[in-house]
Structures are given as structure tokens and as C-alpha cells.
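Final report, section 2: Outcomes. Of the targets proposed, MarR family transcriptional regulator is the one most frequently requested by collaborating groups, and we therefore present its record in full.
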Amino acid sequence: MLCFALHSASRAFTNLYRPFLDEIGLTYPQYLVMLVLWERESVTVKELGGALRLDSGTLSPLLKRLQARGLLVRTRSETDERSVRVEVTDDGRALWQQARDIPQRMVTATGMDLGEVEELRATLENLTSTLNDAARRVTENRETRS
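The predicted structure is given below as C-alpha cells.
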């Protein structure tokens, strides 16, 4: 089944990431947060959750640990106290210098060239979008029957 193949591939990726991330002292979910911050510098928790497809209940402990390490800061908006902004610190930016070769190491480990990796990524993003739409329709249909 496709779901088993995808699950196995996901676990294999996570297992391969582990030694690389151990070198820089991050877990895989923490690394994902930092990737967004390295790219954008500053985001709201809501934007971060959208980028990573994680809810704030999942993000909060990750952000708390990363802030304790001095890699990011969280500040509550003065205009909307429900909104929290997350910004990478100088230490967080410095960590990028240690982490920046990880994506290339992962591409190399796939045994695929960059074009093949990009094509697979696009296919998986399309599949994810299609499955999310299908799940939303199923949920809506279930709710209208209730």
C-alpha cells in the first residue's frame, strides 16, 4: 500500500537526519522550526504552524526549548496579545553555519539527482494537497449527515 511506503520512507528520512542533527543539538521537529526561521528570520506562531502544518499546542514546547537554548525569541504583539512573533537570534543564525550542508547531505543520501528530488517533492506536495482536500470533503459530508 502507498501509505506504508510513504510511512517507511518518512521514518528512513528521520533516521538519517538523526546523526546530522545530533551534531548540532537539534531534534527533527526543532530543525524544521529553525529551517523556517533561517529562511524568514521572523514569523508569527500562526504562520510557523501553517508552514509546518503544526498546531500551537505542538509548537509551544518546541519554541520554549529553542528559546531556552537562545536560538530564538518569542514576543507577544503589542496590538494583539493573542499573536506571538518568533524571531531567530544571532546564536540561531550562527547555528545555520553548522547546519547548512544538511540538505545537500540528505539529497546525496537519496541517490537521486537534484532534479529527481525536486520532481518527487512536487509530486508529494500535490498528493498531500489532494489528500487534504479529500479528507476535508469527507469531514464536511459527515457533518452534514449528522
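The chain has a mean pLDDT of 93.
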